[in-house]
Amino acid sequence: MVISDRIRNLAAEAEAALAPIFRTIDEISEKNTEHVLDCFRECRVSESLFTPSTGYGYGDMGRDTIDNLAALIYRAPSGFMRPQLISGTHALTVGLFGILRPGDVMLSITGKPYDTMLEVIGLEGEAGSGSLLDFGVSFDSCGFTEENGRKILDFAAIRAKMEQYGSRVKMVYIQRSKGYEQRPTLTVSEIRKAAFFVKKTAHDLAIPEPVFFCDNCYGEFTEESEPCYVPSEVSGEAAADLIVGSLIKNPGGGMADVGGYIIGTERCVELCGNRLTSPGVGLDAGASLGQNRNIIKGMFYAPHTVAQAMKTSHLAAYIFDALGYKVSPKWNERRSDIIQTIECGTGDGLCAFCRGIQSASPIDAHVTPEPWDMPGYTDPVIMAAGAFTGGASIELSADGPMRAPFIAFLQGGLTYESGKLGIMSAAEQVSRL
């Protein structure tokens, strides 16, 4: 690779400064790996579970074990992981339509959801397309407030919205990661404190508890637990009722070819299973189609692979901060997802960054990424994704909408070594502008 001594020396400087942070990441990875192995042992995972099923998939022991294993790993009462869920957006859609009914209100407490969810909800797109709005579900949201210069959840606004809608608030929706916004990713503790606040507020207002629904994408295994679990000694926090995500992000460990998960309370998971297939069938059907081995292997790899991605993000933050770019989070800040943003300032800068990532990828390194009208997005999007699995965000990738301030959203890195080379390549490309 053509990388200058200046950039290579900057990477070496970054690694020296990041050594204590990398040790902490490795410690979290080791603890999560031990927990995963304990769950594998408890579920008696064996080679026989890799046998594929077809058709209805009745009696697929591998599929059923994966569902149990997923719930156990996330320390939740119930859950499922299925290849029939084609993306994070699809998994979220199944969750929303599984829970919400005509006349209900979906209240987002993290502002406008990620771009691909807008047509699902009915905030964009044509009427009659099958959105939640078409089925009589209303949407409202409240954004963030600021405290000491940092955006935080606006609990006063949350309470006001719950008072306004009363028992119609069937779901409170929270998005862990920033999406295409510039705001902090929420920690597990912050999410669970919000869940506790929502449940307490419902009690105070004498209304039914809404389902607390968390879009958990990009955050899995970055901490030692997930939003659907609360250790007994933690007060002022409550478990999320549902957490949802994609297997071609963190929990697939770079091994899953496709899939998503929905995990939480038994009743919520049951309703979502009915929506995945049909009422009366639920989770008792669904052929595994040869995906069991990779999904199980991905869950095993996930804590380590996420650690590699976390290190890559810290390195990117250090290098591009040193080059004068605005980055979030900073290199020495705590992280609860794998996303790193770099404010490129111009369209040319964003395209150069993505060219650098693509040219250091194992797949399609010879291809030059260009902005295009990607389905589900309001602006043209440029995406560098030289991945073994199409769209896999746990593999080193970068994307961003072609709108000011032209922010690159970097995520992933199956190995730290390849992630490091990708970051140096991107730094080299933008330095030539």
Folded structure, characterized:
The chain has 433 residues and is of the alpha/beta class. The protein contains 10 helices and 14 strands. A 7-stranded mixed beta sheet has the order 1-9-8-7-6-2-3, sandwiched between helices. Strands 10-11-14-13-12 form a 5-stranded antiparallel beta sheet, covered by helices on one side. It has a two-stranded antiparallel sheet with strand order 4-5. Strand 2, helix 4 and strand 3 form a beta-alpha-beta unit. Helix 9 runs antiparallel to helix 10. The two termini are 18 Å apart.
End-to-end separation in angstroms reads 18 Å
> In one word, what is the shape?
globular
Order of helices and strands: HHEHEHEEEHEHEEEHHEEHEEEH
Q: Taking Cα atoms only, what radius of gyration do you get, to the nearest Å?
A: 21 Å
Structural class by helix and strand composition? alpha/beta
Helical content, roughly?
Answer: 25-40%
User: How large is the count of helical segments?
Assistant: 10
- Low-confidence segments: none
Number of strands: 14
What is the residue-mean pLDDT, rounded to a whole number? Answer: 96
β-strand percent reads 5-15%
The main pleated sheet reads as: 7 strands, mixed
